[in-house]
Design a protein that fits this description.
single chain, 2 helices, mainly alpha
């Protein structure tokens, strides 16, 4: 490979171009540092929200366990009613309990579906961010 000789003016022009590149790169780095600082703050807030999400999952698990306990109680009352010979219509108290159980179950179902959708969306975004940060520069 042969390197052609340049004039002093051509070399000076190269240096001006290189200095211009360096100034642009320094501006980029300054902007990236500002974005980095903002990203760190946003990630700290995201971590707080992820921890809050975990606490919400614990509350949801408690709610499901409570619903399960009420369901078992209601089922025992229905079984007792059947053993007592009430094989036709439920008495008013059991009928009211059943209607309440239906309402509670439906609200829990809707809540579970909202949580599931939110959870999957949030965890997918975390996975995307993790993959982006793990990619080589």
């Amino acid at each position: 490979m042969t390197i052609s000789l340049k004039t002093a003016a051509e070399s000076h022009a190269d240096h001006r171009h290189w200095h211009s590149d360096v100034e642009c790169w320094k501006d980029d780095i300054e902007n990236w540092r500002a974005e980095h600082s903002t990203a760190v703050a946003q990630l700290q807030e995201a971590l707080r929200q992820i921890n809050e999400h975990g606490a919400s999952l614990d509350q949801h698990a408690d709610s499901v366990a409570s619903l399960e306990g009420r369901l078992e109680y209601h089922e025992k009352n229905l079984a007792a009613s059947l053993q007592n010979g009430s094989n036709t219509e439920l008495d008013e108290m059991l009928s009211d309990q059943h209607a309440k159980q239906l309402d509670v179950h439906q609200r829990q179902h809707e809540s579970h579906e909202r949580i599931k959708k939110h959870h999957h969306t949030a965890m997918a975004q975390v996975a995307i961010l993790k993959a982006a940060l793990e990619a080589p520069m």
